[in-house]
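Retro notes (design track)

What went well: tokenization of the new backbones is finally stable.
What didn't: we kept losing track of which sequence belonged to which structure.
Fix going forward: every design gets posted as structure first, then sequence, in one message. First example under the new rule, 283 residues:
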């Protein structure tokens, strides 16, 4: 769950030959914890979510106890279209350094296939490996993070299954349950929707690993219910441990809005990340 991490919507104005749109911007900073006290590292996620395009980027660095056992740094980005209020990814890039190793992944989604560049290449692809259809019908890990927040923001319910493909592994995240409660943990103060989160491995896992099953028990994912927003940023993801839990918790949230100009082809994805918005703290 630590690999993936968000967004919201905006409006479209037409004036003369060019169209002007807004993109809502979320800058989220998370902290990993074990047993409520042990720091594991920090992650930063930025989401720019417009009417017809979105971009998302994330960086993660291990710290504390986790860095002692396995020093990890991760940088990833994705972008794609917004179709009927939900993300539909085009491109995903990952640079992951861990345990004196480094792997780079670039996935490009075409109408009929997913093109992958992976270095170094995986030695094993699982039994069974992810099929071409499964790859095409899935979100990348970062876009799935955006999809979860967009789905909860639209429906204000905990429901749906979200298929994910990360270059080798294909799995589903499933939301259920749902209870509104108060959240006050530094990054956000207000109502959140507490959802049950299930992890269901599908393909790309090895048989001697039990197919990846049973490794991650049912956890929880909490979403901020910001009045007037159609996107619900995740503020907490947790999974139980034998004597406690491991959790990724929001430490700071800044929200803003940026105007982007679009021509006849729609918004340019580069504008979403190069126009610096005026960000304000989360409520």
């Amino acid at each position: 769950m630590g690999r993936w991490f968000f967004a919201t919507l905006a409006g479209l104005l037409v004036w003369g030959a060019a169209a002007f749109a807004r993109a809502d911007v979320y800058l989220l900073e998370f902290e990993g914890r074990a047993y409520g006290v042990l720091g594991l590292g920090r992650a930063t996620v930025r989401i720019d979510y417009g009417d017809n395009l979105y971009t998302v980027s994330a960086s993660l660095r291990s710290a504390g106890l986790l860095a002692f056992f396995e020093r990890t740094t991760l940088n990833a980005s994705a972008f794609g279209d917004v179709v009927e209020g939900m993300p539909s990814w085009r491109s995903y890039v990952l640079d992951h350094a861990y345990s004196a190793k480094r792997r780079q992944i670039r996935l490009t989604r075409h109408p009929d296939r997913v093109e992958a560049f992976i270095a170094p290449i995986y030695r094993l692809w699982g039994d069974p490996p992810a099929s071409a259809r499964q790859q095409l019908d899935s979100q990348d890990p970062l876009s799935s993070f955006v999809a979860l927040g967009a789905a909860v923001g639209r429906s204000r319910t905990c429901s749906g299954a979200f298929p994910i493909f990360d270059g080798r592994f294909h799995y589903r995240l499933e939301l259920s349950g749902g209870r509104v409660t108060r959240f006050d943990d530094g990054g956000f103060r207000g109502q959140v929707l507490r959802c049950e989160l299930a992890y269901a491995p599908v393909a790309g896992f090895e048989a001697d690993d039990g197919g990846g099953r049973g490794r991650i028990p049912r956890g929880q994912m909490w979403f901020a219910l910001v009045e007037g927003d159609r996107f619900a940023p995740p503020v907490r993801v947790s999974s139980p441990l034998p004597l406690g839990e491991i959790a990724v918790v929001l430490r700071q949230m800044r929200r803003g809005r940026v105007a982007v100009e679009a021509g006849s082809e729609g918004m340019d994805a580069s504008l979403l990340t190069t126009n610096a918005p005026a960000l304000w703290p989360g409520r």
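Added context from the reviewer: The radius of gyration is 19 Å.
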